[in-house]
Amino acid sequence: MITSYAPEAGIARLLDGAAACLGHAVPPEWADAFRAVPRHRFLPGRVWLSDQAAGYVPCDRDRDPERWWAAAYGDASVVTLVAEEGDGYRRPLSSASAPGAVVRMLELAAPVPGFRVLEIGAGTGFHAGLLAHRLGEDAVTSVDLDAGLVERARRNLAGVGLRPRVECADGAGGWPEGAPYDVVVATCSVRAVPHAWVAQTRPGGRIVTPWDSAWGAYGTLALTVRTGGVAEGRFRSFGAYMPLRDPAASGGGLVRDTSGMAGADDGVTALSPWAVAGEDLDAQFALGLLAPGVWHAWDAEPGEAGVAVRLVLADEAGESWACIDYDGERHDSFRTRQSGPRRLADEVMAAHNWWTAQGRPDVSRFGATVTPDGHTLWLDHPDHPCPPVS
Ligand SMILES: C[S@@+](CC[C@H](N)C(=O)[O-])C[C@H]1O[C@@H](n2cnc3c(N)ncnc32)[C@H](O)[C@@H]1O
Fold first, then answer.
1. pLDDT category, 262, cuts 50, 70, 90?
2. 253 is a domain residue
3. Does residue 94 contact residue 56 with C-beta atoms inside 8 Å?
4. What pTM did the predictor assign?
5. 163, 177, 188, 248: which has the highest count of C-beta atoms within 10 A?
6. Does ligand 1 have an atom closer than 6 angstroms to the CB of 105?
7. Which of 34, 146, 167, 241 most suits a substitution to test ligand 1, by most atoms within 8 Å of the C-beta?
8. Do 18 and 132 share a domain, yes or no?
9. Percent of the chain having pLDDT more than 70?
10. Same domain, yes or no, for 180 and 276?
11. In a domain, 126, yes or no
12. Is the shortest distance between the CB of 150 and ligand 1 below 6 Å?
């Protein structure tokens, strides 16, 4: 039990947790940084901890010090800001990332003293603090969309004697004043790498960013920048970060309720909904790449005769929806219903068939090439682009 800061015990626990996540010890240079930049100094008195039944629930240091301190020195991300949505759902907006995940990002980005780094998503300032400790505070710039978070991050950093540059800006534009960087590392996930990050990184430099899709946030993309505004690299099989928010977007963009949408076409498929939305993260990742903009949710109580469990599909434009239904008995035949301009069940089936025909590739066989015109996603080699399935 940790109910106040016992430096050795807290850090040992954090490093053990990170090592378990990494599968190897935290490299000494980053272990030193974790010792010098105590994580609890970056957490507010109220944090939000995930509870399976209740979503994100508040945890106050004064009222529940045991849980608060356990979270501060555990290996999970700790949510520090939530948006209360109309339906009672609390959407996490910022967190201190999990130490193991932070080290994996740092290992991929591999910054060494002398490098200049831009971080996208300052959050609490913790990650920027680790970087500033290792590289020097002048070498680190971090931006966040939220002015309140930026203020807090600056205060947190100053509290441990560090003053890297922390600015309030939309990270999609990078921070051109500090360019060129040797490394751009994002701690929020993207569906497309903003070209500003490529333009602001020197040739040979690296961009590391968690990946997101409407299907789900998973995977981390590690790019090397080449000349001519091109960056190329592969995905890695970790990462699930909150998304880079678009300040111009009007809302969450998710279709939560498809009940009452009429005019559906019925069909039948042999594709089990668990094959595309179950525990196989490689399958889910591929689906997110191949069927862009397709969102899914399980409905365990569809309230319809003959339907035990339903996988609901919707496009983010809110124009198309579909479902794949399990009747509680047959495992080789599932009813589909789909409606709208996009045939979402067909897209999901086509994406899964392609992925299966390629030998069920894991995340690390996929890659991306980013140019000023956008990005191409590929399998194994840039000459083998992923096909459109819609
Ligand atoms: C997982 S948190 C970052 C954790 C942080 N690096 C730390 O160590 O505490 C993701 C952060 O990305 C920020 N973010 C989201 N969209 C952004 C955008 N468009 N520009 C800049 N920051 C953004 C959020 O406000 C949030 O603070």
1. low
2. no
3. no
4. 0.93
5. 188
6. no
7. 146
8. yes
9. 95
10. no
11. yes
12. no
